[in-house]
């Protein structure tokens, strides 16, 4: 029986943080056993906000290396840079012709990002390119964090609209969003998500951070009034965020952590959180150090060739359906 296809992407600018890891990358890795997985470093998406051209290729290479260190296995998954496969952009154009501008202007991320960097057409059309990424390979499932929910909804709408207008072509992709960890919050403001673009580096922990940095970040994390360690997003978002991280890194249930640290004060609890994060990230740091940039570049280049071939076969069917062939 044909295995189902999984697709997901990650923007390469800014460093990869524990939110990316717990919300998405852990699922990317896990799903490799069961599905045909395609994982993409989405460099074209990263160009929709201001970026430094001189650092771009370096950051992209580093992201590629971090993802392999996190467990993306190029022997089992197709792995490449988006810009190496032009079919993403071709399909985005075609999908753009059936996308309403009203729907795009309601996208939360567009509203947020256009507020800080100014609106451009790329940022406005971003969700259409993302839909194309997913539909290009007829993906059945897409592992992402909670912030991508609305974009996934658009991809599903566009698949349905295309199928209705041009004939049954795309499966309707299902989001895979974890019950816990889908929205890791900023350490400095637990009301907003942890983000690569937050100007305050104290707001996040990077997967490559050294133990001392992790200890310092968690020690300085904003907590809530009171002193009990209790999982309660309404009353105690700062503490809940830390409990959730500890639970995910150790595999311990939330209640067991509450049970052990409930009344012992924040200090002791934060030290334990820091140690669990350090331990959880140690294999990633070690794997990163053991990788060679040249090898990583070869892996993504070989991945791009294979992805290109695959995309061409699929895209030919789209060209036929929309009347661009014969
Ligand atoms: P990006 O690069 O912002 O993030 C990569 C993945 O990490 C998840 N994530 C989080 N999860 C939990 N807590 C957080 N604080 C947190 N921050 C980020 C994101 O949900 C994402 O899964 N638009 C996408 C990239 C993309 C894509 C695609 C994804 C482009 N094309 C096709 C899936 C399918 C993005 O900007 O992810």
Structure explained in plain terms:
- The chain has 2 domains: 5-177 and 292-322, 3-Layer(aba) Sandwich (Rossmann fold); 201-288, Tyrosyl-Transfer RNA Synthetase.
- The chain contains 13 helices and 5 strands.
- It has helices at residues 18-31, 43-46, 53-70, 87-96, 101-105, 108-117, 121-136, 149-166, 211-219, 237-250, 254-261, 266-290, 293-321, and strands at 5-10, 36-41, 77-81, 141-143, 174-176.
- Strands 1-2-3 form a 3-stranded parallel sheet.
- Strand 1, helix 1 and strand 2 form a beta-alpha-beta unit.
Summary keywords:
13 helices; two-stranded parallel sheet; binds tryptophanyl-5'AMP; mainly alpha; 2 domains; globular; 3-stranded parallel sheet; 326 residues; Tyrosyl-Transfer RNA Synthetase; 5 strands; Rossmann fold; single chain
Average per-residue pLDDT, rounded, comes to 96
- The gross shape turns out to be globular
Corresponding CATH architecture of the largest domain: 3-Layer(aba) Sandwich
- As a percent range, the share of strand residues is 5-15%
CATH topology (fold) name of the largest domain = Rossmann fold
How many β strands by DSSP?
5
Runs with pLDDT <50, length 5+? none
Structural class: mainly alpha
The helical percent reads 55-70%
Ligand inventory: tryptophanyl-5'AMP
User: Roughly how many Å apart are the termini?
Assistant: 32 Å
Order of helices and strands: EHEHHEHHHHEHEHHHHH
Largest sheet: 3 strands, parallel
At the first level of CATH, the class of the largest domain is Alpha Beta
Return Rg in Å.
21 Å
